[in-house]
Amino acid sequence: MVLLSRATVSAPVAAAIAIVAALATHTAARALPQSNQEIVLQFYVTNADGTPVDGIFETTISIWDAETGGIPLWSEVQNLIVADGVVSTVLGFDRPLPPEIFDGGTRYVDVSFPFLPAQTRKPLVSASVQAGADGSLGFAFDTVEVTVVFDEVTVAGTASATYSNEAPPLPEGFNAGDAPAYLDVSTTAVFTGAVTVCLSTSPESYSNPDNLYLLHYEDGAWIDLTPLVPYEATLVDAEGHPLEGDVMVHFVVYDDPGLRNALWEDFVTEPVIAGDYRTSLGSGVPLPREFFDGTVRYLGIAADNGAEQLPLSPFAPAAMCGQVSSLSPFVVAERKAIAVDIDILPGSSRNPVNPRSQGTIPVAILSSAQLDAPGQIMVPSLTFGRTGEEQSLAGCARGGVDVNRDGLPDLVCRFFTQRTGFGAGDVQGFLRASALGGTRINGADVITIVGR
After folding, report:
1. What residues contact 301, with CB distance under 8 A and at least 6 apart?
2. What is the distance between the alpha carbons of residues 446 and 18, in angstroms, rounded to a whole number?
3. pLDDT band at residue 139 under the 50/70/90 scheme
4. What domains are there in the chain, each with its CATH number?
5. pLDDT tens track for 170-202
6. 373: helix, coil or strand?
């Protein structure tokens, strides 16, 4: 495998032109000489009012050694066809790119359209990809990182990464957070098999960090990738000898080091070569999206074939990964949560809660024209308590109950009081859940603390 690692994304800059990616995987029939390697880029072009541009335009594209000032390393005039704001082009096809562009340093792309003011240069990093070799290429910008792993490279070429804060509109209900960063990776190398792409996450940039998605722009649409977390370990037997052959490993994620509450588990069988074990968590049983919210959880691992027990380890993925067959823009985006009405202790207006109680608290999630609570809410995802993050679910009634008599069936569930975390001074209870399709649900209702 060839590893392209630690590409990072700078803070966004205002621009009407967004270099949203080295979109398509550009391949060559043979390895290009270093003096004639190419870079594939795609631009997203908007008018001043934000509408996408259409037409054919004479455009100057240049590569510089600095974000401002500096020395131009290469430039070319191209006639670009812009369709619904998107235009793809190849740098170096007509006029060769100089070797210093591919030395692993950060370069900057400048795009000059005749009808738009000068734009901020966009960071670009390019480096060589060798066929059939394990290794890493560093793509360093500022704050967000991208890692790309090819299953196999058959023909050498170059790999390039750049970023933008603008791109084709995300699907309805999604946004890219407070600091949008669209990562674009391209390669002229020929590869086979899947490509694993990882983007680091910054939970503080999102209002719903427990509902993040890795999106991939493909065939004119954003595609949701199943979140993965690569895992590597050295497996040995009780005498310290490295294991060999297929090994089944049992993974469990707990919410505390005391192993009291298992949040996720899976059994994965992968080949082990001289003790070297590699897999992707989430490739079997999907990982909950809240695992990427920055909260530290704990990963337990047990392997068969006489493997020595591995110690419990903190688990807080700093990147969200997905597998693709082609390269193009990627972004970590959040799906907006929708607010729903809940009724704590249905039938009571004060909603008294005694934190010392050993019992349960009934909560009704009320249906509406937008939500069929019994039919759409994923019951195992329900959390309830003083913050809404508490794993306190005891169970839910089968079917629906029309609690508020509006003709719609509501979902009534019970939560263990001792696990809700309620205490003196609390005046609200919060509930969170996921609905079918991944939509996050938030609800709140008043409570009165009693029995102090």
Report:
1. 233, 249, 250, 251, 252, 310, 313
2. 46
3. low
4. 2-225 (no CATH), 229-314 (2.60.40), 338-449 (2.60.40.10)
5. 887 788 888 787 888 878 788 888 888 888 888
6. helix
